[in-house]
Specification:
This protein is mainly alpha-helical. The chain has 4 domains: about 120 residues, HUPs (Rossmann fold, 3-Layer(aba) Sandwich); about 100 residues, Glutamyl-tRNA Synthetase, domain 3 (Alpha-Beta Complex); about 45 residues, no CATH class; about 90 residues, Arc Repressor Mutant, subunit A. Helix content is about 45%, strand content about 10%. The chain has 20 helices and 11 strands. The strands form 5 sheets. The protein has a 3-stranded antiparallel β-sheet. Strands 1-2 form a two-stranded parallel ribbon. The chain has a two-stranded antiparallel ribbon with strand order 5-6. α7 links the parallel β8 and β9.
């Protein structure tokens, strides 16, 4: 177990693109675990893969984490006792550590060319062997190594994995894991350009930054024995590991990947999901509240969360559940707060004044902010009415009569408000003994073009007198 007195967790995104929802869910777990124990949550940028770095990605990552309502105690923008928090600014440290391992006889210089390594890999694949380095430079004569380095021959530094050892570690979610040294590659630690590989940099930084617990995706399980070997080689205490199962696509088939549509954390906000609902959804994936609650706050999650309680099975990223949860959060908002959040989603042809009048009518039905337009467009755009739908439950003659009498009644209505409209329309229906369901659906279709809408009388009041009468008149000839 870790000897660190304080819980310190970290998230270390790479600036190779947008932050994935799976990464944001993992960040939340690291954040919550640190907060639960009064510890520190650290944000570090792992930018050692310079070829894949995307300009501006670091700023976007920091911005989206904050947009989700999460913060960090130490990081690239605010510094901290173990700065710098960006790996490309820590290069001398990795070089020094890699050379230390060579001196200790636990790593070695490898001069193999890329061509040789590719050929070796192809041969191994053709022979159905696991592709890994064959150890050609592992036992080079020290004098030869010195000579080749003096000639500036390109070399990497590789870890000398003890092939006759079992490497063991405990995972908080999966228990004891044991791997044989002969199955582990002599991985590269330092590349020819002086940049470290992920494996060296992550271990050096996690130790330097006093990280006590590492909560990360299960795809890193196969790398953990390599990291454990490095901790041992340096004589350092390893942190406690917890490898969290990946998300499956909403259809339950396969890992939720970037190729299956938009899965960046930002894209969900852009589509009208609330950050609080997103966090609540992440909390529920593979973990259960002790009181079986489904809706709860970040503070409550921080209080109860324990990585040991995470299910070891992969969970489906259930969009239906997410939409339901988002709707729950939307309904807790006041109308003015909802209006503020809806501003980016209100089309330009809907005035802010009209939007404010529409919001109470669709508040209960809105599951995602981006649905505003779909649920409200008939208030401010021309509609299309299906003639067949108008006469579905009645004869064309009856429908024509209903529309004509409704127009006459509404033209002479004393006040255009919900109560007056309801009184006039209900009186008309009762006096003529029309079937209420058929008549009300007819009006709904005629004024909105939709079968599912906000409450009928409120909707007609909001549409206004001239638009309502114009639409009823337009529907009149359609009934034949």
């Amino acid at each position: 177990m870790s000897t660190h007195s304080m819980v310190r967790t970290r998230m270390a995104p790479s600036p190779t693109g947008e932050i994935h929802v799976g990464s944001m869910a993992m960040l939340l777990k690291n954040y919550a675990f640190a907060k639960k124990h009064g510890g520190k949550f650290i944000l570090r940028i792992e930018d050692t893969d310079q070829t894949r770095e995307v300009p501006g990605a670091v700023e976007r990552i920091l911005r989206v984490v904050k947009a989700y309502g999460l913060t960090w105690d130490e990081g690239p923008d605010i510094g901290g006792p173990y700065a710098p928090y960006t790996q490309s600014e820590r290069l001398p440290l990795y070089k020094q550590r890699a050379e230390q391992l060579v001196e200790q006889g636990q790593a070695y210089y490898c001069f193999c060319t890329r061509e040789r390594l590719e050929k070796l890999r192809e041969e191994q694949m053709a022979n159905k062997q696991q592709p890994k380095y064959d150890g050609r430079c592992r036992a080079l004569d020290p004098a030869e190594v010195t000579d080749r380095l003096a000639k500036n021959e390109p070399a990497v530094i590789r870890l000398k994995v003890p092939k006759n050892e079992q490497i063991n570690f405990t995972d908080l979610i999966r228990g004891e894991i044991s791997v044989s040294g002969k199955d582990i590659d002599d991985q590269v630690l330092l590349k020819t350009d002086g940049f470290p590989t992920y494996h060296l940099a992550v271990v050096v930084d996690d130790n330097a930054m006093q990280i006590s617990h590492i909560l990360r995706g299960e795809e890193w399980i196969s790398s953990t024995p390599k990291h454990v070997l490095l901790y041992k080689a340096f004589g350092w205490q390893p942190p406690i590991f917890a490898h969290v199962p990946i998300f499956l696509n909403p259809d339950g088939k396969g890992k939720m990947s970037k190729r299956k549509g938009e899965v960046s954390a930002q894209s969900f906000l852009d589509n009208g999901y609330l950050p609080e609902a997103m966090l609540n959804f992440f909390m529920l994936l593979g973990w259960g509240h002790p009181e079986q609650k489904e809706v709860f706050s970040l503070d409550e999650y921080c209080k109860y969360f324990d990585p040991a309680d995470i299910s070891s099975k992969s969970v489906v990223f259930d969009l239906v559940k997410l939409q339901w949860l988002n709707g729950v959060y939307i309904r807790t908002l006041s109308e003015s707060a909802l209006f503020e959040k809806l501003k980016p989603f209100i089309p330009s042809d809907c005035s802010p004044e009209l939007a404010k009048r529409i919001i109470p009518l669709i508040h209960e039905r809105l599951a995602i902010l981006s649905e505003f337009e779909i649920l409200s467009s008939f208030f401010y755009r021309d509609i299309t009415v299906d003639p067949a739908a108008l006469v579905k439950k009645a004869t064309p003659e009856l429908v024509h009569e209903q529309l004509a009498k409704t127009i006459a009644a509404l033209e002479n209505i004393p006040a255009w408000d919900e109560a007056s409209l309801e009184t006039a329309i209900r009186e008309l229906q009762e006096k003529n003994d029309w079937k209420r369901r058929q008549y009300f659906m007819l009006l709904r279709l005629a004024v909105s073009g939709e079968a599912a809408t906000p409450p009928l009388f409120t909707m007609i009041e909001t549409l206004g007198k001239s638009v309502t009468l114009e639409r009823l008149s337009h529907a009149l000839p359609l009934s034949f």
